[in-house]
Amino acid sequence: MAKHEVGLDVKMLVAVGNVDVEIPVKADGRALGRLRISKGGVDWTPARKQKPYRMTWEQFARVMSEEGKLRG
Fold first, then answer.
1. Comparing C-alpha atoms, which of 6, 34, 38, 33 is closest to residue 21?
2. Whether the Cβ atoms of residue 25 and residue 3 lie closer than 8 Å to each other
3. Which residues 6+ apart lie within 8 Å of 41 measured at CB?
C-alpha cells in the first residue's frame, strides 16, 4: 500500500472564509494532486493537470455516504 502524505499545519480551528484552503497530497513521495476546500465545496486537481474536478458539499456528502467506508 502506498504511503500517503497530506500537508496541513493548523494550530486551531480556522473558518474557511473568502480564502480557499489548499492541501497537497503525495503517495510514496510523488505528487498525487491537490485538494482545495472552500465555502462552496471541494476541488480535486490531479498532479500534472490544470483543471480541477469540483463537487458541492451536498455532492461530497452523498458520495462519501454511498462510496466511503464507515469507520469504527
1. 38
2. no
3. 54, 55, 56, 57, 59, 60
Cβ atoms of 34 and 50 within 8 Å: the answer is no
| DSSP H or E segment with residue 64 | helix 57-67
pTM of the model: 0.76
Helix, strand, coil % over all residues of the chain, rounded to 5 = 15, 40, 45
Picking from 48, 26, 28, 25, the residue whose alpha carbon sits closest to that of residue 36 is 25
What one-letter code names the amino acid at 36?
Answer: R
> Could you tell me which residues are beta bridge partners of residue 41?
38, 56
Looking at the DSSP bridge assignments, the partners of residue 13 are none
- The alpha-carbon radius of gyration of the chain (Å, integer) is 14
Q: 38-71 pLDDT, tens per residue?
A: 989 999 999 999 999 999 999 999 999 999 999 8
